[in-house]
Amino acid sequence: MKKEWFFDRFCGMQVAAYTEDGVIVEVGVEDEQHGDLLGNIYVGKVQNVLSGMQAAFVSCGLERNCYLPLGERAALFGSYDGEGGEGARPVLKEGDSVLVQITKLPRGGKGAKVTCDLSFVGKNLIYLPRTDFLGISRKITEPEVRERLLKEADKLREPGQGFIVRTAAAEATRRQLKVECEYLKRMYRSALEAAKTAPHGTPVYREYALPVKVMRDSLGGANRIVVGDRELYEKVLPLARLRPDLGEKKVALYEGARSMFAEFGLSEQIMRLTDARLDLPNGSYLVVDRTEAMTVIDVNTGRYTGESDLESTVFETNLLAAKEIARLVRVRGIGGIIAVDFIDMTEEEHCRAVDEALAAALSEDRAKCRVYPMNELCVTLFTRKRTGNDLVNFLLKKCPACSRQGYVLSDIFMAMRLRAAILDHFASGYRAVVIDLNAQLMSTVLANRYFAEEMKGEWKDKRVYMVPHLTWKEEEFTVRGDNSDVLTLPNDAQILY
Question: Going by fewer Cβ within 10 Å, which terminus of the chain is more open, N or C?
Fold first, then answer.
């Protein structure tokens, strides 16, 4: 199987996509300026304490106050084998300053979830400076290896502190563990020092940028890494040299004229991720519906009629759907509770087999998943740990024209589509392009300066004109190339920057 990672940056965003035999399995998107909030540590101020809920609400300088549960420490480490988890629990009152770390991103009308049990993540270890806990990944199964790693981690910690041994540590030497331990401890000391003078709402530690996190956590077994931006390439290359399973020979800089994602056939795949309907190879299909509380997936036979009896047809469709659902939740970044309405089956062994197929497919996911038995209605519930923003939240936004019940493509995603179309025309030899588009989208593109970097660099000898249309839909646009010395355009046309 050919496994590849693709990194690029444009429109103020960094994008990473992982493919297996050319099919996207995982996508990450991150704002370059603000990064991902998950894992950041802030100096917060307690706004109020709710003793009846064993919780406090903390101001961290974000849009909404953060939710701090005061009694769920055991749950934080429940996905690892280990002992301990105890430590000094803070006694809080309104107005107190507190150092907190984001463990769950804001969603809908809810603020971020935070904890006082700080953690610093490395490739092999997770350092827990305030928690007496020693744990190890369940994916390390050899008893001798587990015992050796736990002993090494125990030697590295001080009283009241803890470590979690990650899966990658199975191949790590004692020296590598020690060096990484010292590095993580320095990060904690640096955060404490910054917190002494930082005002409330200030981040004293930020998680790594998207490419660095991917290089740290997710590249095992990759055959190639393709980078579409030279500045990003210069950052990725030294990181690849540090990994014995990679090396710089596996890192390639894409220098084509077209958008890299379009060139490798990834743009169309990402676009299809916005569809509520997903067609399966045998003619059946899935329908995905997001709600505030959960995601619901409906399985339908569609055009597939099978070759024998109804039960076999339904069973084959459900098995195929189970495998595709595991890929779908991973690539779209769907987390929380997922309900799958499989097609009704009458045989219990078929129901068990579908559940087992779903669990087996989900076992390849880095996010923790738990599958519950199918009920008599042939509905299976499973949970998937949220590891970041849903990709669909980046690709779509609430539609302003349908009482906020539907979605349209987001402004930043539309800007990315425009950029790809512009690159296609420049690659075809045109010196100028004219874009007809929705007037509001044009205003957004200009206000946010999405293409400012390109206009200063690779597009400095090109011309990009935009023509606004008040009656066009937000997703409607056309792009045409032109090499004329003089262009005839409407009075309201505007040259890009």
Answer: N
